[in-house]
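User: Could you go from structure to sequence for me? I need the amino acid at each position, not a summary. Structure tokens:
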């Protein structure tokens, strides 16, 4: 048994494996490259290793362990059937440099995703290459930049963003070399058309905006905004982070956008968090299609049946756009993310509209349930509703400023308190236009029972003693951390002997 489990393997190591076929001396490895001493690896049996990683898994919070209402990030259930499909050998065990005829199955999936994404967003062409929403933003802005250069309008050096924008919008445009012009929102949290009209000009390259915006409010004047930007010669860029609120109801194309990025790891159920893997394809109108990163997947008729004159099959091939900005990732970026999202799309098809409906329904239900619980507990003055609109879309914001002023408890304290009740904390301090902001997104995959329980516990946290919340969380593996110290004193590698 000890040999099977590797507890007493070769030289007392915590593993069991055959001896090396070739020694370092036989391979002529220079002595300067050989170890002077054995690596300090732990000597553990297989059961001990399994227990260690199982223990670690219990210390993490994820969508599979509890409610994860992280506003803007859309942390929702990821159907397990998608994982099964992504691991099929004909999908998982191939390489993009194999001949095209070896890759027809996967290329057909890529082609379908290009067509589906273009259709649901009202675009004409799609590249699947970017591996994050922010990278999709940068890619689309670069396509717009090259388009302007090609038509002789290199003087367009400014990108307009509203003050409620995701921070990646101005960052992506700045990376492309643009100057950023921020315009204020109106008192109801929407785009200010007068401010936009004053900002556009011959130097306007594009406007970047999310709709619904980060307050969860639909920009009703978006078509008018597109007319203003287009009249000045600029392009409209749609940040697709909140696409799950409108899919099947309207589209960026109908609103007047020229380019859009999609978050497959949000709207289309590809798992994300902890740094990836994400996927941020972009779609563009026809005048920008030649600038997309390649390769794209094309399709042609393979052969015709002589009797019926009907195609027997399609043949898929790589296609390079003629004026491409160049690659932003290799081939199709995170291919597995594309496949998982394709499986989600193929399962639900036209029913994806229901996803948007339930996302909006859950957000509005939870918003009102929190207000009801707060009123019943007598703490309705602990927050103000950060979204004045009667109906929000997929997420909503609350301002904890009244609680901060009256009790000394801010959004961060409430967020930490929720951890002790078994919930992942919502997004805090974003968007910046809402003081002591807490942004909550329940997604379409949570039940009424989960939302009711969260609303009740959310209000319980509001009533807790300030000292308790200042010290929260107490029940998690790691207690209250000093975020400033952690940000300024990074541990970029594990050091021997250091305790985490």
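Assistant: Here is the amino acid at each position, in order:
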């Amino acid at each position: 048994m000890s040999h099977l489990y590797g507890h007493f393997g070769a030289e007392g190591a915590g593993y069991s494996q055959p001896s090396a076929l070739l020694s370092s001396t036989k391979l002529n490895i220079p002595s300067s490259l050989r170890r002077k001493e054995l690596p300090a690896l732990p000597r553990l049996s297989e059961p001990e290793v399994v227990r260690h990683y199982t223990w670690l898994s219990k210390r993490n919070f994820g969508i599979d362990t509890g409610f994860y209402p992280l506003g803007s990030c859309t942390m929702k259930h990821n159907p397990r059937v998608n994982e099964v499909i992504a691991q099929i050998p004909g999908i998982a065990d191939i390489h993009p440099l194999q001949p095209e005829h070896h890759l027809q199955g996967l290329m057909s999936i890529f082609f379908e995703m290009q067509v589906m994404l273009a259709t649901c967003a009202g675009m004409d062409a799609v590249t699947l290459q970017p591996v994050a929403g922010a990278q999709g933003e940068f890619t689309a802005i670069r396509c717009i930049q090259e388009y302007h250069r090609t038509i002789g309008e290199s003087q367009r050096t400014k990108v307009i963003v509203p003050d409620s924008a995701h921070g990646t919008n101005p960052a992506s445009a700045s990376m492309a070399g643009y100057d950023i012009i921020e315009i204020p929102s109106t008192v109801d949290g929407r785009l200010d058309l007068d401010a936009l009209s004053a900002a556009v000009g011959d130097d306007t390259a594009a406007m970047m905006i999310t709709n619904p915006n980060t307050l969860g409010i639909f920009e009703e004047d978006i078509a008018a905004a597109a007319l203003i930007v287009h009249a000045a010669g600029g392009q409209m860029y749609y940040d697709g982070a909140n696409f799950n609120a409108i899919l099947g109801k309207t589209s960026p194309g109908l609103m007047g956008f020229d380019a859009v990025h999609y978050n497959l790891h949000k709207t289309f159920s590809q798992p994300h968090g902890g740094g990836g893997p994400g996927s941020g394809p972009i779609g563009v109108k026809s005048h920008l299609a030649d600038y997309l990163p390649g390769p794209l997947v094309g399709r042609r008729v393979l052969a015709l049946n002589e009797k019926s004159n009907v195609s027997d099959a399609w043949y898929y091939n790589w296609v390079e756009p003629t004026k491409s900005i160049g690659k932003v990732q290799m081939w199709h970026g995170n291919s597995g993310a594309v496949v998982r999202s394709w499986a989600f799309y193929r399962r639900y098809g036209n029913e994806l509209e229901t996803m948007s409906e339930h996302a909006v329904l859950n957000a509005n239900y939870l918003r009102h349930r929190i207000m009801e619980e707060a009123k019943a507990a007598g703490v309705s003055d602990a927050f103000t509703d950060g979204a004045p609109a009667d109906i929000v879309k997929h997420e909503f914001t609350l301002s904890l400023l009244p609680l901060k002023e009256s009790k000394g408890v801010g959004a961060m304290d409430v967020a930490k308190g929720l951890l002790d009740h078994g919930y992942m904390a919502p997004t805090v301090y974003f968007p910046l236009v809402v003081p002591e902001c807490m942004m909550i997104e329940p997604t379409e995959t949570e039940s009424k029972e989960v939302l009711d329980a969260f609303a009740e516990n959310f209000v319980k946290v509001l009533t807790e003693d300030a000292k308790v919340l200042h010290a929260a969380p107490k029940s998690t593996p790691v207690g209250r951390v000093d975020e400033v110290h952690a940000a300024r004193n990074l541990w970029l590698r594990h050091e021997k002997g250091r305790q985490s």
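One structural detail worth keeping in mind: Residues 2-27+44-58 form one domain.
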